[in-house]
Amino acid sequence: MDRRALESAGAHFPYLQGLWTIPMGFTIPLAGVTNLRGGPHGAWLLAVVVGLVGLAAASGLLIWWYYRDRYGNVTPTPSRQVRHVVAVGAWVAVLFVGANRHLLWSPTSSICIFAVAFALATLAYYVILVGLRPHHVLIWGTVLVAGLLPVWGGLGVDRDAWAMVALGVPLIGSGLLDQHLLARAVAFARSSDGEIDRVGT
Amino acid sequence: MSEPSHPLSHDALSLDRLIHEPARLAIMTVLSSVQAADFVFLQTTTGLTKGNLSSHLSRLEEAGLITIEKSFVRRRPHTDVALTPVGRQRVADHWARLDQLKQLAEPSAEGSGVADHPPRVR
C-alpha cells in the first residue's frame, strides 16, 4: 500500500479539479473582449456576453455534476483551508499589482505586465497549494516569457484586453492537465490498495 | 528456553489488527489527509464495493475511530465520514510502527535476526 498516494489523493483532490478552468477559460476572455476599445458594441457585445456567460454557466453545472457523481467530495483539513486562502490571496495580490494602471502599467510599454502578473500569480498559487508540476512550469513559464517579449507595443492600450482573450487557452490547457493528474492520482491510490490486498490476504 | 533478547519488545512492534486490515487502513489513510470525505470519494479512492465499504465503515465506527454523518442533500442521501481524534492518532501510530518495521526489515535481510521475530498482530 502506498501511503503517500492515498494521502495525496485526499489532500490534493479539491485543488486539482482542473475542469473548473473551462468556465474560467470562457469568462476571462469575455472580460478581455468587453475591455477592447474597438471590440463588439451594442447587439454584438450582448450576444458575445450572453453566449460566453451561458457557456460558462452550462459547463460549470456539468462539471459540478461530474465531480459530485464521479469523485465525491472532501472537506480539506483546516491547515489546507488556510493554505488555500493564502494561495488565493497571493494570486489576487500579484494580479492586482500587475493589472493596476497606477503601479507598473504604462501605455507605451512594449511588454505585457498583465500576462506576466497572471503567470506569476498562477505559479505562486500552485506553489503554495499543490507544488509545481512540470506542466505548470511549461505552460505558465511560456506565458511569462510571452508577456516579457517586447512585441506588445503595437496593441497600445488594448494589450491587456488581448492578453485576457489569449489567456483562456493556457488556463484551460493547464486545467485539463491538472484533471489528468487528479485522475492518475486516484487511479494510483486504487491500484496501491490492490497491491496490499493481495499481500495481506 | 528463553527467547533471544531484542532491542525492541514485541509490544513496541505489535500491529493493530483492526487498522491493519488493508481496506480499513486505506480508508483511514485517506481520511487522515482530510477533515471529512463522503462515501463516493472513499469508494473512488479505495476501489471497494458499496457493501464492502459500508461494512468496514461500520466496524471502524463501532470502534470509535470514525464518525459517520448521514443526511440528505437536494433529496439525495449523503454520507460524510471523518476520523475521530482517537482514530487520527491510531492511524498515525500504525504507520509509524509500519515504518519502524520497514527499517528493521532492512538490516534483517543481512542476518540481524529480526526476521525471526515477526510482529505480533493485536
Which helices and strands occur, and which strands form pairs?
The complex is a heterodimer of chains A (201) and B (122).
Chain A: H1 3-12, H2 21-35, H3 42-70, E1 74-75, H4 78-99, H5 113-129, H6 134-148, H7 159-200
Helix pairs in contact in A: 1-7, 2-3, 2-7, 4-5, 5-6, 6-7
Chain B: H1 10-13, H2 17-20, H3 22-32, E1 36-38, H4 39-46, H5 50-62, E2 66-73, E3 76-83, H6 85-108
Helix pairs in contact in B: 3-6
Q: Could you characterize what this model shows?
A:
The complex is a heterodimer of chains A (201) and B (122). Chain A is mainly α and 201 residues long. Chain A has one domain (3-200). Helices cover 75% and strands 1% of the residues of chain A. Chain A has seven helices and one strand; from the N terminus they run αααβαααα. Chain B has a single domain, classed as Orthogonal Bundle (Arc Repressor Mutant, subunit A). Chain B is elongated and about 55 Å long. With 122 residues, chain B is α+β, with helices and mostly antiparallel strands. Chain B has six helices and three strands; from the N terminus they run αααβααββα.
Helix content estimate of chain B: 40-55%
Alpha-beta content class of chain B: alpha+beta
Distance linking N and C termini of chain A = 13 Å
CATH architecture of chain B: Orthogonal Bundle
Counted beta strands of chain A: 1
Q: Which descriptors would you attach to this protein?
A:
heterodimer, A: 201 residues, mainly alpha, 7 helices, 1% strand, globular, disordered C terminus, B: 122 residues, alpha+beta, Arc Repressor Mutant, subunit A, three-stranded antiparallel β-sheet, 6 helices, 3 strands, 52% helix
